[in-house]
Every structure is written in structure tokens, then in C-alpha cells.
Amino acid sequence: MNNNKKRLEMDRRQFLANAGIATAGLVMMPSMAAAQRRRKSKNGKLNIAGVGVGGRGFGVLKAMESENIIALCDVDWKYAKGCFEYFPEAKQYWDWRKMLDEMGDEIDSLVVATADHTHAIIAATAITMGKHVYVEKPLTHTVYESRLLTKLAAKHQVATQMGNQGASGEGVALTTEWIQNGEIGEIRKVEAFTDRPIWPQGLNRPIEEQAVPDTFNWDLFVGPAKMRPYNEIYTPWNFRGWWDFGTGALGDMACHILHPVFKGLKLGYPTKAQGSSSLLLTDAAPVAQKVRLVFPERKSLAKVAMPEVEVHWYDGGLQPLKPDGWPAGKDMNNQGGGVLFHGSKDTLVCGCYGRDPWLLSGRVPDVPKTEPRISLSHEMDWVRACKESPKNRVETLSPFSEAGPFNEMVVMGVLAVRLQSLNKELKWDGENMRFTNIGDDETIRTVISDGFKIHDGHPTFDKEWTKPKNANAFAQELIKHNYRDGWTLPEMPV
């Protein structure tokens, strides 16, 4: 065992040995958490720590570099090297738990930009310590985790923001105002798409076990998920395409593309869900997907009714068909995707992040500006909110009170795809986070590998399937994961 691996093992053993002390540090009394929220650093700047700083996290922290970046944590020190060098005074960690244990008294706020499956456990733990949190999209890996972060943020009154930066853009505000002013009439159907994935999906799980690099901590990367052998195919970018770690193209991009849909139409929980895709594998997200979510009628606004609405999603190169009157030669894809709001009076179109909204009729609405605008960046608006007291705080434009329920919508699409072999429209009880029409005796199987080969010039498949599983138990595990031993979420607030 080389020195680096010895040090990693010692770090893990030391953490486990101090588990009682660490737990005491991570689960603080409300009065202590409140005291921390009131504390300011000596120079009036926020003390920020980052977890997952090798990719998107580095960009978020650079957008906040006017503050004090005091701690950096990543399981891949090769990938994180650029961030470590950019913020040389920040203390470096492998394990976020150890970071919070050692520096909890100094950290005001936390940026979480790890793989999707660890967003919730890191953010939830930090919130219970009274830390403000900024979490990259998708907010969480599951419906339950989204609900948990929503309720914890409300209980501990911390400043929160999901990293869907379009929420702070002009496009989302304009789209919302046009819809709610009745400019396109009643909307009963929405279609949205992304040009992702741009990372590999639809892959068979690798058989080969590779040696873990000295600069990588595989155990900490896997975290609460089920352990599997290391292979370089999973990281650092490709985690998005693997179900245990990511949420595929839908989870990755819908938080950008569907935000004006959720916000403009005042959506809540869907009542029905149905998905289909290219070959669905046990471990990897499919190459292309289609999803339909149905939302019930909502309370009418002053200028427009909010009837039942269907939201259709496409990815993997699929797009909605061009509606009548579409300008010939105009690309529907705008910066990674687009949305069509089909109204009773007109059709509203916007791009990814809600950008560049326009009406198919060519008319340009002139409506009152009822939505808030910010002069700061999406990231710095969160910094601003962190410095305000809960009583006087002006919320960010993607706080967990909105981002949590919205993310439930997004990961519901993932559930619809992963349960498609039940061959029916699924009925969803959002309040209780359960499907109501999966029978106790129904089972489900998924394809482990497709067994694709070329034999004498002919394509052949020899699919390997899982054993039949109880469909309700399988669905419940997707709604609320059973974490690996040693990894536990805080309790759901009442």
C-alpha cells in the first residue's frame, strides 16, 4: 500500500473512530444553529466551503470568489487540482464529513456539486448544522430526498439555491408573465426536449475491475449507493449516465428546461406518469426517452384558467414535431433544448434556461413586470441571501421551497422511464409519495446486458435479465433509496 493509500485509510479509520464526536458536531441543537447563522466573518464576507469542486463546482465557486473560500472537498484530487490551485489558502479534504466535523464552526455556507446521488445527504447534513446551501441540479436523486431538503430548509430557515441558473434569467420571468397574463390562453399541453446526452448512455455495465488511482477515493465516491468495482467509465463526467449515480439526460437538463413550465403554470405534484425509451438497462440510462406527466387543474388566475395539463419530454435526439406555422428552416434547439407551450390563443416558444421567449404568431406581448429580477448573478444572489436574517431575507429565485417540488417533477420522469415495463400509465399520490395502481403481486425485470454481437455479419442479442422483483418494492426503492451501511439521512421533519 503506497503512502497516499495509507493516508486515505487512516483518514477513514480516524473518522469512524471519532464517529461519536462527529455525530455530535453534525447534529446541532437549534439554538446553536441559529447562533451560527447570526455569526459573521471578521471582514463581513461569507465563509464558503465546496464539496465536489473538480467540474461545475469549480465554476460556481469562482463566481463567488469575492467571498472567503475556506475549505474544498473532493474525492478526485486529480480532477480537483485546478480548483485547489486557484484557491490555495482553502483547506483540502477527501471526506465532507470530516470537513464539517473539523471546520463546522468556521463554515457559513456550503456549495454542493458532487454526483447526483450524494447531493441530498451532504446538503441535508449541512442544513441541520445551520449552514446555507447551494446545490447543483438536479437537486436530488429521488423524490423523497427532494421532499426532505424542502422541509429541512423551511425548518432551519437557511438560504438555499438550486444551480439552475436560468431561474435568475430574464427568459423565465418573461415566460411566466406572458402565461399568467393570459397572452396565449389556456394551456393544456406542453412539449419540451433537450439535445442531451452528450455523455455515454445505454452502456452495459463494465465487467473489468480496474485499479483505483492514488488520486481517487472510490469508497467515498460511491457513498450511500451500493458498492461496485471501480472502473474509469463512471467518472468524472460520465456518472450522469449511470442510474446509481446520476439521472440521465432528463434529470440533468430538465431542471434547466422545465423550470419556466413548473413556474409559469404553477404546477404541483403530477397525478399520472408514463415513460418509454430505447433499450432500458438495469445500470445505465437509455440513449433516448419520452415521458408524459399529467398535472391536475389548478386554481384559476385573474386573467387565465389553469386546466389539467400534459407535459411531454423528449431527449436523446428526439424533438416534438414542428407545429403549424413554424418558420421554415428555424432550428427548434436553442442552447441545448426548447419548450413549446400550446395555448388556446397562441403558442409560446422558449429555449433552454427559458431563454429568448417568442410567440408563434409573431406578436410581442407588452405586459406588466410582475416577476422579480436580480442585478446579481445566480450564485451571488444566493450569497446575498445568506447574509440576510431569516426574518428579513429576500428569497433567491430557485430556493428549495420551489426547487424541491420542481425537482420531484423531474425525477418523477425518471421513475416513469424506469417503470415502463409495467406497461401502463402510473397513478401518483404526490402527497404520500407512492404509486396507487401497482398491484401487490406485480413483478418487474430489467436487462442487465444486451449481449450484442456480430456473428457472420448478422447482429445478434443474448439479453441477460434480472430475476423478477416485486414491482412495489422496486418502485419504493426508486422513490426512497436504502442507503449503504454507514450513510444516513437526517429524519424527515413533521
TrEMBL record:
Pfam families cross-referenced by the UniProt entry: GFO_IDH_MocA (PF01408), GFO_IDH_MocA_C2 (PF19051)
Start and end residues of each Gfo/Idh/MocA-like oxidoreductase bacterial type C-terminal domain: 205-261
Domain Gfo/Idh/MocA-like oxidoreductase N-terminal positions: 48-163
Transmembrane segments: none
Stored InterPro entries: Gfo/Idh/MocA-like_OxRdtase_N, Gfo/Idh/MocA_oxidrdct_glycsds, Gfo/Idh/MocA_OxRdtase_bact_C, NAD(P)-bd_dom_sf, TAT_signal
Superkingdom to which the source organism belongs: Bacteria
Protein name: Gfo/Idh/MocA family oxidoreductase
Annotated organism of origin: Carboxylicivirga marina
